[in-house]
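User: My collaborator sent over this chain with a note saying "see what the structure looks like." That's all I know about it. Can you take a look?
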Amino acid sequence: MNQLLGLLLAVCALVPVPLDTPPDSKTPPMNDAALEAGTSRAWALLPSAILFERNGMSHVLLGGGQRDAKYVATVKAMLNDSWEIKTEDDLITQLEWLKSEGHRKAFTRRFKEVAKLSEKDLEKSLAKLKDDAERANARTEWNNAKRALALKGGVIAWDYARAIALCRWGYAAGMLSEEDVWKRVEPFAKELQAAYASWEEMNEAFLIGREAWHPGGNAETVAAYEKLAKSESSPFKSTPWNLKLVKLDKPEKRKDPVK
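Assistant: Without extra context I'll predict from the sequence alone. Here is the result:
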């Protein structure tokens, strides 16, 4: 009996013990560390702040929330319902479209057409519309067209802010690794900083783009922006617009910590 037991133990010792399967590199940790205000990484996420505020999501967590099953399911449903994104390939396709074209090209063509109208011509056009909401939307478009064309970056903020948001949600959904996110977000952030003069100007461009996309249906989005603009704890106040952006591949420490 002792010989049999010894033989079994010897055989078991020869069987390799399976190692823990390494986690998928694109699966983010359940609990992300909060980003430090006033750093390049914090700056790079802020163009998506209006969208994240509107959806009740965090501004300091890369994925917008702690990655429990409920939050992940919510993000995946949102990506599917709003963007028809189910896979990493779907996500990359949308990001490439936002980078190369987005809505801004069509919106800019439309703005140029509308801006040609004199106020007298506008009033004639409005008189032909029977619906008050249509007239209000048409007047808003006319006003926005002139402003959008006067901005150096036009409405690129509408496309690039959404691209940054998609990177963050893609991370939360396990479609992008943290490394992937920072690599993709960096050029969007740096182009936005070069395109506008302030957070206010960038956000104005974003809202003009939103209005062009969904005329008259932006009360919640505008309210989200106004809440951020008025709040003393607004992330726009703790991270300066003119911050010198460094590469995002590694976290950095703020040189003058928030007091």
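A starting point for your reply to your collaborator: The CA atoms of residues 103 and 248 lie 27 Å apart.
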